[in-house]
Amino acid sequence: MRLIRMLGADSPACRELEENVRRAVAELAVEAHVERVTDMDVITIYGAMMTPALVIDGELKAAGRALPTAEIKRLLAD
To answer: What residues pair up with 3 in beta bridges, in sequence order?
Structure first.
């Protein structure tokens, strides 16, 4: 099972990233636990200087923008 964390507050970009992540997981039929992290102490542990940020299986994959669904699917396929 994959662990996917979206880092950031309740901004439009954070909501867009969450929607795109959930869509990518559903389209790929990936078994994943998806969660949003808003705690700044946890966000800084990952080294994310900008939000929204995406962490997959403990590795920071992107920060500062809401990735499109196709790009998230590529990251999940790796």
So the answer is: 33
Q: Among the CATH numbers 3.40.50.1000, 1.10.3720.10, 3.40.30.10, 3.50.50.60, which is that of 2-77? A: 3.40.30.10
Q: How far is CA 24 from CA 3, 21, 36, 46, 77, in A?
A: 14, 5, 16, 22, 10
Q: What is the mean pLDDT of the chain?
A: 95
User: pTM (2 decimals)?
Assistant: 0.93
27-50 pLDDT tens trace: 999 999 999 999 999 999 999 989
